[in-house]
């Protein structure tokens, strides 16, 4: 008995087979393209710089708003800035009322410790109490650093660290004092330096008499 498939029936069977095969190829192509990995995305954003508020204020921009304690000859332990320059307070500014301004020429002689743009607080160095640091607005609108409520200044007459030529100065702006780490003004004048040489002792002793009185009398 021979098996014979009619042509129409063969075509009817072959068409679904071809359709299924074509769909499989199309599905495989779509699946392959969907699995293609996208190129990695790289960020071009610049990492933000860390805030420069480390205690000690090593950079020049932070030195003027760094407060620490240091020994100054004749005064003991007083407040200085990050460069070692002595810090002063104006007696009339107790409580934070700023009277030393540029309009009167005060800040040209007594430069204030003013915070640069972007900084909201000062830097506490060694030997000071960070809780005593604060700020106050001056009449000109700049933000000044305070310690214990006192606005802080340097003095143009100081030629470096370890000097306090502004201590006890009384000028047209008021009286100026250095500040202790406790936040209290030191109102004593700087101790005068001791003499470097002692007065010399006399090198010669007074001379003794060279003659003696002669006895008188008549001879027989």
Number of helices: 3
Poorly predicted tracts of residues: 1-5, 12-39, 41-58, 191-203, 215-220
Strand content: 15-25%
Distance from first to last alpha carbon: 209 Å
Biggest pleated sheet: 4 strands, antiparallel
* Overall pLDDT level: 75
Order of helices and strands: HHEEEHEEEEEEE
Structural class: alpha+beta
> How is the quaternary structure best described?
single chain
Number of strands: 10
**What fraction, in percent, of the residue positions are helical?**
10-25%
Radius of gyration, Cα only, in angstroms?
45 Å
Choose one word for the global shape.
globular
Can you give a write-up of this model?
- The chain is built from three helices and ten strands.
- The chain is an alpha+beta fold and 220 residues long.
- The protein has a domain at 60-186.
- Strands 3, 8, 9 and 10 form a four-stranded antiparallel sheet that branches. A three-stranded mixed sheet has the order 2-1-4, with no helix packed on it.
- The protein is globular, with a radius of gyration of 45 Å.
- The termini are far apart.
What labels would you give this structure?
220 residues, alpha+beta, 3-stranded mixed beta sheet
Produce the secondary structure layout.
Elements lengths: L6 H28 L25 H4 L2 E7 L3 E6 L6 E3 L15 H4 L13 E2 L8 E5 L5 E5 L2 E2 L18 E2 L2 E6 L5 E2 L34
Parallel strand pairs: 1-4
Antiparallel strand pairs: 1-2, 3-9, 5-6, 6-7, 8-9, 9-10
């Amino acid at each position: 008995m021979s098996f014979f498939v009619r042509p129409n029936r063969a075509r009817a069977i072959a068409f679904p087979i071809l359709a299924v095969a074509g769909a499989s190829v199309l599905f495989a192509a779509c699946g392959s393209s969907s699995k293609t990995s996208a190129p990695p995305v790289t960020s071009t954003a610049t990492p933000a710089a860390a805030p420069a508020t480390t205690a000690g204020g090593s950079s020049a921009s932070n030195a003027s708003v760094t407060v620490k304690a240091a020994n100054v000859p004749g005064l003991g332990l007083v407040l200085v800035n990050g460069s070692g320059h002595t810090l002063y307070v104006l007696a009339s500014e107790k409580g934070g009322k700023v009277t030393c301004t540029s309009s009167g020429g005060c800040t040209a002689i007594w430069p204030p410790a003013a915070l640069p743009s972007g900084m909201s607080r000062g830097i506490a160095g060694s030997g000071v109490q960070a809780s005593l640091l604060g700020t106050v607005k001056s009449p000109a609108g700049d933000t000044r650093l305070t310690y214990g409520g006192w606005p802080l200044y340097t003095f143009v007459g100081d030629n470096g660290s370890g000097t306090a030529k502004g201590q006890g100065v009384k000028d047209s702006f008021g009286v100026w004092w250095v500040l202790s780490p406790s936040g209290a003004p030191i109102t004593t004048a700087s101790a005068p330096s001791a003499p470097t040489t002692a007065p010399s002792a006399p090198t010669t002793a007074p001379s003794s008499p060279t003659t003696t009185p002669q006895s008188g009398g008549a001879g027989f």
